[in-house]
Amino acid sequence: MKHRHAQASGNIQARIDRAHGWTLHRENGQVVVVISGDWIARAGGMSVGAVDHIFDHDADKVEKISFDITGTGRWDSGLIAFLWELRSGAAVRGVVFDDAALPASARRLLALATAEETSVTVSSDHSSLSRQLGRWAIGLGTTLFGATEFFGDVLLGSMVGLRGQLKMRAVDLRDCVLDAGSLALPIVTIVNFLVGGILAFVGAVQLSRFGAEIFVANLVGIAVVREMAAVMTGIVMAGRTGGAYAAHIATMQSNEEIDALKVIGIPVRDYLVMPRVLALTAMMPLLYLYGCAIGILGGLTVAVGMLDLTPTAFFEQIRLAISGSQFLFGFGKSIVFGALVAIVGCRIGLQAGRSAADVGRAATSAVVVGIVGVIAVDAVFAICANAVGF
Amino acid sequence: MTAQTQPVRLEVSDLTLAYGPTVIQRNVSFNVARGSIFAVMGGSGCGKSTLLKSLIGLLPPVTGTVQFAGESYWGASAERRVEIGRGFGVLFQNGGLWSSLSVSENVALPLRMFTRLDEASINMLVRLKLALVGLGPAADVMPAELSGGMRKRAGLARALALDPDILFFDEPSGGLDPITSKRLDDLILDLRDGLGATIILVSHELPSLLSIADAGIFLDAETRQPVAHGSPRELLETCDHPTVRAFMNRERMETVKNAGGHRNGS
Question: Which UniProt keywords apply (chain B) (predicted)?
């Protein structure tokens, strides 16, 4: 807003920034502020805090303030800010603010800046600690209740799905299956292969001290089939797919797409949640089986490379070590992990706020809650298995 | 004549705009006088916002030139374009506020990035800009907590942060009720008169166009080129083009075409 009224002459002098400044003339309770130079804000042409100096400089009470702008060059909001501060200062002290000498455009801006403002109510929390704590506890309870309700709703959705009455599009389900299935294979391969290899490596170092190298196969086989394939795949899918579900649904929330679904009467559960939950719950056990094979392959690679074991001996030992029930245990866990990650992702996405930052927060919490959830549920499984002596 | 005193602030000649192989508009030429309010008009999907994008540096035109105060914009180096762009204030359709920053931080960010002002001066300017748009009390509010009209005003305060002498508004009154829309129009007029800035606005809101714009161009979606030049009032009163008449009089296209055909035939 470099002011063109002041520079219409267009001469070269006007374009060279002259130092801005002001001086005072006082007479009979009147103050005349003589403003000079260029007041361009971004070039530093501002004078913040001058108001106290001008009004409270000497003991004489100021009754009126007026201006002399004959020496003023170019100006923008730097000058308006200065005048605005003086005007507010004058109003507080009951001093007459005589703006007659100011340019019309400056008067108009000053009037605009002091015009009636929109009132905005901001909710702020100034309540006591106990009240805040209580509110937090109620909030937590509501969240847990909501999550349980959502879980129940998804279960009911599955029942409806079994009867083939879900209002979802086959193409959505297919896309979700593809995304949670074959597109996840590369990362599942890498993680499980490395975990199998690391287990074999740790086992080989320890067991070779006792001449029990062959038991590396037992270690790798049992650990991978019973725990690692299911847990690692669950964690990978929480990071990869759970986060994506939350971000996708949260973005739909902020674009009012979810509102549009609700208004038209398409159930959000059927249309958005069920395809994701069904796809991930169905794909996770398959990924688990694949992860088992790859994990054992990783173990085999290290065992054959580091120890003098033959692949045949390794496989024979694994066959003896692991039983079908251990497979079933891991298989069952992976189904639960799949459902958990998908439900958490969808739930957090649907609960998200409507800003870009909320989308980021939703994705982060879906990943964190998903990973912690997978590990916590795995611990529960371990405790239960121990209790029944499995 | 120096750049500051050029009577023409923006000159667009023979612009062709396209997304890939799809041509959006061609043969777009117009001049915007310094201190005027220029309207880019037309129905939905005619390429108004696309034209705006090419004026503010977001979409390079396929052919043609855009000159700001006599200096070619797209012919300039990337660094120079950024420098020219710093003189722009842009109000996006939905405000375009950065959602992770409070309203005052939104206004302060350009000042922090592009000036060396001290904190007290920045705070002063932020308060002034928010006061100019009547949003002083909303300084610490997050954008998500604002209503649509307030978001636009906050976007306007941010557009004014660096004292631009050319302002671009994308649908300033779109989605606002008539009262809020009228207030925003008054604000735009006040700011133009107070700041002496040049304003280019994209809109299809007739009441708003008629009350504030003093020149304009009408883009046609069908032929993909401008079909009329003039202020909205001139177009309303004198323009014969069927699409412009339909737009200005809110008539249905068929009625206009039939009437035109009938008149031509008789």
Answer: ATP-binding, Nucleotide-binding, Transport
- Separation in Å, CA of B125 to nearest CA in chain A: 6
Q: What is the pLDDT of residues A194-229, one digit of tens each?
A: 999 999 999 998 988 888 888 999 999 999 999 999
Mean pLDDT over residues A137-149, rounded? 92
Whole-number average pLDDT of chain B:
85
Residues A241 and A349 in one domain: yes
Measure CA of the first residue to CA of the last residue in chain A; give whole Å: 78
* Minimum Cα–Cα distance from A46: chain B residue: B121
For residue B110, what pLDDT is reported? 86
A153 falls within a domain: no
Which chain B residue has the Cα nearest residue A13? Answer: B2
Q: State the complex-level ipTM.
A: 0.74
Burial letters A248-277, b for 16+ CB under 10 A, else e? bbbbbbbeeebeebeeeeebbbbbbbbbbb
A113 at interface of B, judged by CB pairs closer than 8 A: yes
Asked whether residue A105 falls in the same domain as residue A220, the answer is no
* Mutation for A interface: B86, B132, B133, most A CBs within 10 A: B132
Question: Which residues form the domain of A60?
Answer: 12-113
Give tens-digit pLDDT for B183-241: 788 888 888 888 889 999 998 888 888 889 999 999 998 899 999 999 999 988 888 88
As a whole-number percent, the residues of chain A with pLDDT over 70 amount to: 92
Choose the final residue of a domain: A54, A87, A113. A113
d(CA A55, CA A69): 19
Looking at this protein, which amino acid is placed at residue B110? P
Would B92 be classed as within a structural domain? Answer: no
**Which whole number is the average pLDDT over A229-238?**
96
Strand blocks (E) in chain B: 8-19, 22-33, 37-41, 63-68, 71-72, 88-91, 166-170, 198-202, 215-220, 225-229
- Domain span at residue B204 reads 3-87+164-265
Integer CA distances (angstroms), B132 to A111, A113, A344, B118, B164, in order: 9, 4, 46, 21, 15
What is d(CA A83, CA A67) in angstroms, rounded to the nearest whole number? 10
Contact B117 A8 (CB under 8 A): no
Alpha carbon distance A346, A250 (integer Å): 9
Greatest CA span in chain A, whole angstroms?
110
State the sign of the Cα–Cα–Cα–Cα dihedral B225, B231, B233, B239: negative
CATH number at residue B78: 3.40.50.300
Q: Over range A76-93, report the average pLDDT.
A: 89
A77 close contact with B: CB closer than 8 A: yes
Q: Answer whether residue A271 shows pLDDT above 70.
A: yes
Note whether B141 contacts A120, CB cutoff 8 Å: yes
Token pair belonging to B79: 């660094």
What number of C-beta contacts closer than 8 Å exist between A and B?
A: 127
Of B172 and B125, the structure prediction assigns the larger pLDDT to B125
**Domain count of the fold of chain B:** 1
Question: A169: part of which helix (H) or strand (E)?
Answer: none
Burial code of B49-61, b = ≥16 C-beta within 10 A, e = fewer?
bbbbbbbbbebeb
Interchain CB distance below 8 Å, B131 and A49: no
Q: What is the pTM of this model?
A: 0.69
What are the distances in angstroms from CA A117 to CA A105, A114, B18, B136? Answer: 20, 8, 43, 7
Cα–Cα distance, A87 to A110 (Å, whole number): 8
Q: Per the structure, how many domains does chain A have?
A: 2
